[in-house]
Amino acid sequence: MVSPMLYWRRWLCGVAAITLTGALAASAIAISPPADASRAAEQLRMEATRYRQMQGRWQPVDGGKELKPGDRDSRVKQLRRLLQLLGDFRGLPGPITLLTPDTARFDGAVQYAVERFQQRHGLEVSGAADTATLSELAVSPTVRARQLELNAQRWEKLPLPSKDRYVLVNIPDYRLQLIERGREVLGMRTVVGKSSSRTPPITSRITNVVFNPTWTVPRSILLTDLLPKARNNPEAMHNRGYRVVSYRSGDTTTISPDSIDRAAHGHATLRQISGPGNTLGRVKFVLPNRQSIYLHDTQAQSLFEQHHRAFSHGCVRLEHPEELAYALLRRQGWDRTRIAQVTTGTETMNVRIKNPARLFITYLTAWIDDDGRLQFRRDIYHRDKSGADAN
Q: 4-30+59-139, superfamily in CATH?
């Protein structure tokens, strides 16, 4: 029979865990890097010093299976101590902290600490110490200190304007932010380049918005992806809006064995006409750069539901491109109704942005957010491991 005190303790921990899980899920929606890059670098160096100092007290959790709420295990004690060292374990709020915990039990306090850790490291917030969470917990403070120092250097080289609006795309965070007067006014999820076709760091400006764009296929994608499909099923490629365009004359022809051969030998390319099935979607943002990188809409909306979103050929796909178009063009008299109207047809419209917004596509795997929490993200392109300076 469960004693009244034990029953009360379990009930309180359960209620607290449910309440705090909801709060963490909400806070994970908007995590803003600081607007002051020099201040960000200073903060990261201070954190690097703190991490180096905790190395002597650091002890990873012993290897084993996933730990989840309700478990009772000696490894939970290790997990609790480690989360406390990292600053994520703070007990439960209010009178709940007065209860004497069973340190070997995965209770609500441990669950909340795990959720805080997961949120700060860009992991799925589940409250269970799963394989991905235990892997991040196994990274030593010395390694984290080096990561913090590398990102401090990146922040120092990031020329963020203090007054002008700008767009910041952080590749490892899969996120875009529009910043005005040092505050985020728009944020959305992104899809970035996969490991074999990485999105490069870029400093540029967003000069144009193109509604209902066409897509001229880059040669690398043409050879490795689309030519084999065109050979196997030319009719399907035609139905998807692809046409062969001659480099010399600019003439457009339908897909045929002869036209495919010309494209394969470098005399022609593929272009996809504008419309609802276009790979770039309904909106493309032009940013002058040597790598032919764009921000654009996408037909593959389901990818935004993935937690890790490195799937593109290098361009940055946007969750809500119409909202970014509105934010960049509203000073020129555009409203959401007008944007909705121009994106319903197939006619391409190229709109130049007056006073183009600065754009920074960057690679930051550590920062301190607006709430003073230290954030880490996975080194998806292994730039931290190699010591590469992304900016």
A: PGBD-like superfamily/PGBD (1.10.101.10)
